[in-house]
C-alpha cells in the first residue's frame, strides 16, 4: 500500500510536488502570523461538472492588513461560454484581454498561494470549482485550510431571538454592514478585495486583543 501511494505521488508534476511539500511545515498558530489569501472566481455558471472558471482574483492579507504588493488576477481562455452569466461578471467571449489556459492558471495560483490559508465568501463554491479544474488535470484537491467570510460573519452576530444565526449573508449585505465600497463588485479581483476588507473587519471583532489563535478563530 505504501509503495502504491509513493508511485502514485511520483506521477504528479513537479509544480504539484513543490506545492505539496510546503505543507510539511508547521503552520503558525496565531492569526496575526498567518498569511491569508483572499480569493474569488468568476465562472460560466454554477454547475461544477459543466461550468468553468473565467477569472481568478486574489489579494494577500498579512499581519492584519492587505499587502498590495502581493495580488493575483488572471483571465482564463473560454472553452465554454454562457451568455446568461455575462450580465453578472461582464466578461465577453471574445473580449480583448490577455487570457491563459486553465492549466497555466492553476500552476500560477498554486505557486501564489503556497500553504497559505484561503479565504473566500461562500468558499465552498470557489474551492469546489478549483478542485474540479485540478481533477481535470488528474491532480488531488487543494491542501490549504479554508475560511468562509459568510460563516465568520455569522459568528460576530449577537445571540438574539431577533437575529437569524443561520442566515446566509451575501457579500453585499456584509459590505453594507461594514460600509465597504462595492463599486468593483462582480469582478474576481474586485470581489477578492471587498472580501479581504470584510475579513479584516470580522477579524477586528473576533480578535480584540491581537492574540487570537487560528484554532479559536475556527471555533469562535
From TrEMBL:
SMART domains associated with the record: EXOIII
GO cellular component, one term: cytosol
Gene Ontology molecular function, alphabetical: 3'-5' exonuclease activity; DNA binding; DNA-directed DNA polymerase activity
Signal peptide start-end: none
Cited InterPro entries: DnaQ, Ribonucl_H, RNaseH-like_sf, RNaseH_sf
Any one of the GO BP annotations: DNA replication proofreading
Domain Exonuclease: 35-208
NCBIfam families, per database record: dnaq
Stated role: DNA polymerase III is a complex, multichain enzyme responsible for most of the replicative synthesis in bacteria. The epsilon subunit contain the editing function and is a proofreading 3'-5' exonuclease.
Subunit comment: DNA polymerase III contains a core (composed of alpha, epsilon and theta chains) that associates with a tau subunit. This core dimerizes to form the POLIII' complex. PolIII' associates with the gamma complex (composed of gamma, delta, delta', psi and chi chains) and with the beta chain to form the complete DNA polymerase III complex.
Identification of the protein by name: DNA polymerase III subunit epsilon
Source organism per UniProt: Salinimicrobium marinum
Organism taxonomic ancestry: Bacteria, Pseudomonadati, Bacteroidota, Flavobacteriia, Flavobacteriales
Encoding gene (name): dnaQ
Amino acid at each position: 500500500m505504501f509503495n502504491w501511494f509513493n508511485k502514485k505521488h511520483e506521477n504528479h508534476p513537479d509544480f504539484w510536488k513543490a506545492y505539496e511539500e510546503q505543507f510539511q511545515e508547521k503552520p503558525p498558530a496565531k492569526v496575526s502570523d498567518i498569511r491569508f489569501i483572499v480569493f474569488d472566481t468568476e465562472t460560466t455558471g454554477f454547475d461544477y461538472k459543466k461550468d468553468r472558471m473565467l477569472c481568478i482574483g486574489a489579494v494577500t492579507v498579512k499581519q492584519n492588513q492587505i499587502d498590495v504588493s502581493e495580488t493575483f488576477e488572471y483571465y482564463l481562455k473560454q472553452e465554454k461560454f454562457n451568455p446568461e452569466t455575462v450580465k453578472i461578471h461582464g466578461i465577453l467571449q471574445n473580449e480583448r484581454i490577455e487570457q491563459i489556459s486553465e492549466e497555466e492558471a492553476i500552476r500560477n495560483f498554486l505557486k501564489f498561494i503556497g500553504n497559505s490559508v484561503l479565504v473566500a465568501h461562500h468558499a465552498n463554491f470557489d474551492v469546489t470549482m478549483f478542485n474540479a479544474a485540478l481533477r481535470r488535470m488528474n491532480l488531488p484537491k487543494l491542501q490549504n485550510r479554508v475560511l468562509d467570510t459568510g460563516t465568520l460573519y455569522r459568528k460576530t452576530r449577537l445571540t438574539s431571538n431577533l437575529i437569524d444565526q443561520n442566515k446566509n449573508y451575501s457579500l453585499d449585505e456584509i459590505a453594507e454592514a461594514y460600509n465597504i465600497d462595492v463599486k468593483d463588485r462582480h469582478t474576481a479581483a474586485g470581489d477578492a478585495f471587498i472580501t479581504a476588507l470584510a475579513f479584516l473587519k470580522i477579524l477586528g471583532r473576533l480578535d480584540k486583543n491581537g492574540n487570537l489563535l487560528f484554532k479559536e478563530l475556527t471555533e469562535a
